[in-house]
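Sequence design from tokenized structure. All designs in this work follow the same two-part layout: the structure record, then the generated sequence. An example of the structure record is given first.
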């Protein structure tokens, strides 16, 4: 998916919600456990319930890899089920020496039909570049993450700047705003204005709203972007996983997740109007 297609979807649907399919077989409603592939069944119903209120789905591969071959099958079926109108993110946090990264890129962009993959920048340019070589595919590089451990490296000074600032500045030169996004956690709201000074045009994938407590209002006010003609481009994909998909553990789980997604859409609609 291209940047302009993504922006069109955002404004058509008045939402920049990304629903995180962090589907844990131990947390899904018990009545699904008798179906042949309970995780896929759960995901299908969540997708049907939420697809009108979000523009993207993020599949965190850990929840699937943990179940071995069966989990990988659920993942493959799920990504194929997501409509092509939606931006499909593999949250796999990959990145290795060049020829290995090329294999990861093949796995997620060719064998599986993802639009984007999350990438850890620690190993440098040759570890990120293979993900940038695919037309209309994206690398979403970890910038400033939402977790406590962000202070251990990302928020340490290297010279005059924080390590995460150096990452944003350097990595943004390896690609452009048509193939590169950055992860910035919603729990890091104080840094958003600064981040927009360093990368004024790139989309941000923002997890940390919902269960982790980040404020949608705060980040939307600080980090939305405009083009040269002063038209709003949004520039944000806000991921919510648990707070949407586990809204209920009863038979009404899909209906409840839809209501949660609608709440986020309604709030986002307001911010897109300004
Ligand atoms: P919830 O807290 O349940 O909404 O889930 C957040 C999702 O975003 C999980 O899949 C995390 O792995 C992911 N995530 C973070 O929570 N923090 C980050 O800094 C980066 C990510 C990510 O790359 O998506």
């Amino acid at each position: 998916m291209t940047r302009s297609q993504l922006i069109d979807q955002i404004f058509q649907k008045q939402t920049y919600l990304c629903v995180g399919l962090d589907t844990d077989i131990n947390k899904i409603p018990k009545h699904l456990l008798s179906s042949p592939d309970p995780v896929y069944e759960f995901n299908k119903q969540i997708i049907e319930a939420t697809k009108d209120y979000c523009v993207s789905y993020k599949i965190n591969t850990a929840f699937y890899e943990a179940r071995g071959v069966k989990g990988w099958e659920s993942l493959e079926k799920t990504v194929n089920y997501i409509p092509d109108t939606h931006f499909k993110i593999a949250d796999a946090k990959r990145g290795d020496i060049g020829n290995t990264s090329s294999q990861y890129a093949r796995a997620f962009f060719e064998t599986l039909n993802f639009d984007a993959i999350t990438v850890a920048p620690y190993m440098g340019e040759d570890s990120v570049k293979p993900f940038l070589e695919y037309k209309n595919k994206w690398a979403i590089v970890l910038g400033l993450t939402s977790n406590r451990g962000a202070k251990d490296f990302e928020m340490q000074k290297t010279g005059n700047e924080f390590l995460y600032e150096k990452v944003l500045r350097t990595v943004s030169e390896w690609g452009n705003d048509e193939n590169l996004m950055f992860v910035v956690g919603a729990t890091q709201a104080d840094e958003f204005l600064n981040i927009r000074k360093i990368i004024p045009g790139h989309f941000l994938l923002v997890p940390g709203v919902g269960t982790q407590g980040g404020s949608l209002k705060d980040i939307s006010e600080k980090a939305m972007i405009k083009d040269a003609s002063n038209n709003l481009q949004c520039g944000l994909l806000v991921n919510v996983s648990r707070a949407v998909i586990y809204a209920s553990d009863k038979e009404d789980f899909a209906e409840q997740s839809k209501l949660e997604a609608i709440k986020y859409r309604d709030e986002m609609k307001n911010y897109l109007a300004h």
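The mean pLDDT is 97. We note this feature because it recurs in several other targets discussed in the main text.
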